[in-house]
Fold this protein.
Amino acid sequence: MGTMSEYATYRETVIEVKLDRIAYNVEQIRAMVGKDVKIAAVVKANGYGHGAVGIAPAIMEHGGDLLCVATLSEAIELKLAYPQYPVLIMGLTPDEYLPDVLQYGILQTVDSLRQARVLSELAVQAGVTAGIHIKYDTGFHRIGFPDCEKSLDEIEEISRMEGLKIEGIFSHLVLLDDESNLKQYQAFTEAIRRLRARGVTLPCCHLADSIASVDYPEYRMDMIRAGAIIYGLKGFHKGSLDIRQALVFKTRINHITEIRAGEGVSYDFMWRADRDTRIGTLPFGYADGYPRNLRGKAFVTVRGRRVPIVGVLCMDQCMVDLGDVPEAQLGDEVVIYGDGTGGTLDIQEISQLAETNKNDIVSRLTARPPRIYTKNGSVESVKTMLGDTGRFQ
């Protein structure tokens, strides 16, 4: 481990990911669900912006059983880095890419008899067995076998196909209210009961996402799909879980301009100074994943004090009013997203200002800001758009 100055980041705008907090959160989730319930860690969207490859070991070494993604490319990225980690694609994969699913030993979600036949034929030709999870639609109406007799017939047929092994079946709660949750749960468990009565082996049944796993312990079943809670993002309402936000988004002041009252800043002069002040320019913008609609709403933290973002946010830069922090200087660290301590805005507050949810805020973070992975305050590694960077010699 080392210090930041020993690594090349190539930018002043970086995302720090605290691996010890990821590990802590997973341990808390494990303590919550117990040893008999598996934890599928959802690391789609580049690990909710944290970097899936960078955080995977902290997850798997502290209680995770499975990594879940949405797309084949996300799965392959993880398999290239960690061939031994089981990875489930929760979305659907086009037929033409199913050979890649087999090549990398990826678990694939299936929601049609037609595609199951295609995958079965390919697996037999390749001399391998494809692990699959059946998606069953209990009311979300996104993907999945419809909740009907015909679907049970088709799933039973799939269970007998050569080259396929059903390793799980899952559904997703709408989370509208307790009544609709119960209705979905009952539909799902009834389908499982009837399938097992037909002799279909279903080793792992899962329904609960992050919110449901905390708020509705009765729906944890064989496995939970933990997403936001892995990263310390709280969306639950009824239960409680001691988790810690793992991400900090920060930059440095790289230019300061003195302006007079009445002068404007940025496109169309949508903001004009009501006093003589200093404007600090920060090298980040909406191309880094920062919500453009936060103009006139959001703050960043400089020397422990919040300063407002002023003017229209640019693609690569934004400006802040430093009038209330006269001692601010070039090179000062600026916290864009913090954990709520030291005057910083955490992901929850940012999401409320942007009128969206926390998952949107972190998953929209682009690959451009380097990810700095730390443990107990020391740098473990740095990943940039150019790949991993080592220490300077």
In short: The mean pLDDT is 96. The longest strand covers residues 130-137.
